[in-house]
Write a structure and sequence with these properties.
about 260 residues; alpha/beta; Rossmann fold; seven-stranded parallel sheet; 7 helices; globular; SDR family oxidoreductase
Amino acid sequence: MSKYVQPDRRPAVVTGASSGIGAATALVLAAAGYPVALGARRTDKCEDVAVAIREAGGEAFVHALDITDADSVDAFVKAATADLGDIEVLVNNAGAVGPGVVHEVDSERFARELDLNVVGAHRMVRAVAPGMVERRRGDIVFVSSDVAVRARPFMSSYAAGKWGLEGMAHAMQMELEGTGVRASIVRPGGTWSEMGSDWDPEAGAEVLNHWVRFGFARHPHFLKPRAIGEAISTIVSAPRGVHLNLVEVTPEAPLEDT
């Protein structure tokens, strides 16, 4: 068999899989036939997703994962590989955002958020990509955000983190060229998720008001997380010889009265 033929079994890892885009991506990939390893700190939430996958006939594995901890990353990857086989797909989705004015946010908090949103993805890459390169096949997907091209106010480290994440992904695309490993970016627009659900309501309202002021909320529609999962499935399911470098997914505006 040619080394460029897609293998029948492609185990996939999804970080931040306990809710939102991560959980939806795990469900979509499992429905498409990918054995899925779900990683997050909230393993109980991941187990709920895994039960839904198994009840639908899919294969799912759950293990605790804190991408800010190198030992946790290594333990997760070893456990997932032992249970599912060599990792063929890595979806770097875990992330967090907190509201705040940049010059008022505590520097330690700013650093923690950058560590989660950028360095955490690098820890996963370090743990998984070398094996992919050795086997001459694999897909790495970075879940970015539209803030990577147009920063929003009061997003603190989030905009900086997503800009940095995309910079790392673009560098990897060049470095991995010819290895059989594809690095891709999916860039969602406004999406319903638990991100921001822990914000103080007054702070959240202030952020949204400023989004309107600066033109970030042209209409009220938001994407459902499954839309991003479907985009990721399309990226990793592309046949050999095809590289979907960047996929932007934005919510369609409501129909206007004619």
